[in-house]
């Protein structure tokens, strides 16, 4: 709250890992239920909780790949510690804006192909 981090609009959620709690706008996987994608290669999801965790893990995997592309393209993202929070936030937003421009304009990009 002190950094004015916005809550998502009603019906939208931030995808979080198990370190968070399920609260308004923050969606975490079920605890003590299979979660990692490799766990579902041997046996498919059966219960509604396993199906939810499987979908959550797939979405999180997409997010991790997107950050992989960003960190490969913008090495500053690996060296943010000495900057104040508001500068870190603005750098991340700028990196995403440039990244999204490249995607939107369909500029041939080796990083996207590599992380696909």
From TrEMBL:
Protein's cellular compartments: Nucleus
One Pfam family matching this protein: DDE_Tnp_4
Domain called DDE Tnp4: residue spans: 9-99
Single GO molecular function: nuclease activity
Keywords: Hydrolase, Metal-binding, Nuclease, Nucleus
Family that this chain belongs to: Belongs to the HARBI1 family.
Protein's name in the database: DDE_4 domain-containing protein
Organism per entry: Cephalotus follicularis
């Amino acid at each position: 709250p002190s950094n004015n981090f916005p809550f998502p609009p009603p019906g939208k959620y931030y995808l979080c890992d198990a370190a968070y709690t399920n609260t308004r706008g923050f969606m975490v996987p079920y605890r003590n239920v299979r979660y990692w994608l490799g766990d579902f290669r041997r046996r498919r999801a059966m219960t509604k909780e396993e199906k939810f965790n499987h979908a959550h893990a797939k979405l999180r995997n997409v997010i991790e790949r997107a950050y992989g592309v960003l960190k490969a393209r913008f090495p500053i993202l690996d060296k943010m510690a000495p900057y104040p929070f508001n500068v870190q936030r603005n750098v991340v937003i700028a990196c995403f804006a440039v990244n999204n421009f490249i995607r939107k304009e369909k500029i041939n990009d080796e990083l996207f192909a590599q992380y696909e």
